[in-house]
UniProtKB/TrEMBL annotation:
It comes from Bombyx mori (Silk moth). Gene3D superfamilies: Insect odorant-binding protein A10/Ejaculatory bulb-specific protein 3 (1.10.2080.10). This is Chemosensory protein-14.
Amino acid sequence: MACVAVTWARPESTYTDKWDNINVDEILESNRLLKGYVDCLLGKGRCTPDGKALKETLPDALEHECVKCIGKQKSGADKVIRHLVNKRPDLWKELAVKYDPDNIYQARYKDKIDAVKGSA
């Protein structure tokens, strides 16, 4: 669901790679950093420039199955999803309520979500 490496779309067919060198592991290992990104995505806190870009891009990435994501962005998204599903289901649930209130994406990506459960 959340893809820290994904950012706003360029007119071209992929998202910008401007934020691709962000250390996703560092964010996931820090409750403070992770909470900051989640609060940004939920509209509960201030956003860093990359957090703002993620917030703007996330709905499009969900809607279009991350088709504009490059490989590094997809692997970052997978890592974030695996972490949230297995280690921070509370945050996963909050993000799902905000970005998937009708359970469309949870249903669409059910097999992928089920596949990462227990594989943190």
